[in-house]
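In full, the data.
>
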Amino acid sequence: MRILLTGANGYIGMRLLPQLLEQGHEVICAVRNKNRFTSNEELKEKVEIVEIDFLENSTAPDKIKNIDVAYYLIHSMTASTKDFDKQEAQAAENFNKMMTETSVNQVIYLSGIINEEKLSKHLKSRKAVEEILYKGDYNVTVLRAAIIVGSGSSSFEIIRDLCEKLPVMVTPKWVKTKSQPIAIRNIIQYLTGVIGCEECYNESFDVGGPDVLTYQEMMEQYAEVRDLKIWIVGVPFMSPKLSSYWLYFVTSTSYRLAQNLVDSMSVEVITRDTRLKEILNIELIPYKEAIKLAFYKIEQNEVLSSWKDSLSSGRFRKELNKYVQIPKYGCLQDKKSIKVEDPEEALERVWAIGGLNGWYYGNWLWKVRGYLDKVFGGVGLRRGRTHPTKINAGDSLDFWRVLLADKEERRLLLFAEMKVPGEAWLEFKIDEDDVLHQNATFRPKGLLGRAYWYAMYPFHFFIFEGMINKIAKGIKKD
């Protein structure tokens, strides 16, 4: 079948795409910016890519007019705006208008379980989108899922952060809320299994794993799998706002996502309608096994996607391209160059920068800067990176966003998503004479921006000097 995959750069979309191709489908990937389509090169050659911003566009490009099935995987909960529900509704309305110009027969939507009377804003928004899609001139199949467990999923990464970093936790009352976590492998089986299944047309199904667990039990079982000792002490007086701050500072989540998660964690998400398991004959993966599978992917460096790479997880909202051209005027710069003996090894060190490998020099200072960024509402360093050596435009990299990663040009360009009074770029480039250039550029915003740059200058002098020397000479860490 010819399939339109919206949200192709998202966590689910990137997991789903290889399976669709393996099953022999022809796939058109809809992304807002084709330059940050982060699938591997082999897969890129097998798909068509079309740029669509569903918040702004409602006219169907020619490439998608002849389709059989469309996946609707557009979500905005990680966005910084409080009005993510309005954005999700607008995107769904535009999607419906666009589909009227196509030959689509079935639309498959991944939603959330909505079996409680009192729903969070996040789940209300998913329900509203579902209702909009049911108005479309096509057959709808809705999969309502609980939290998804897999390497790179927001739920898994948050539980991982909590258990790995806090042997003793003083937790809010929502840790007693029950959920039904489902393995990412089962989600992909459901999403592919309903393609063309007429029994699933114009139906909504609950999909969850075999275990009904509280969030506390999920953390305890995670610790058991990882052979960790944790102690969890619940307190009744922690407000939703304090809970959000607690999640924000301890984990790699943004504050806005923490707020939305806390809001959702007070609602039980347990399946009622489980017909689809029998219809598709799905064998559900237990929670502990899902954790083991996630760690196998992590240990093998096979994490295909992460929620942290979503543009809405940081400062960016739409276009990366307008930041790729570094401004020449009104900027303050720190430029350094050094001849490298082995340019290929130096390039590999540039490509491995950040995350667990650190920034090669003064890592403790980078950590302090990351902590301060968290204090002032920024993303901090905890986002890390999805893969230790591979990197693509659009990826998050600690508190930077990758604007350009071109190994043929031997150039990496980063844009700061930390809280700064201005805009900041960090560029690495090895020229034709095997000279490594490391350029930090800052476009200050007013007097405060200039004061910030000069206050940081002594630290920049030592950090940037040490960093370029260790990249060039092959000493990996400070």
Summary: Confidence is low (pLDDT under 50) at residues 301-309. Residues 446-473 form the longest helix (28 residues). Residues 31 and 229 are 42 Å apart (CA to CA). DSSP finds 15 helices and 19 strands in the chain.
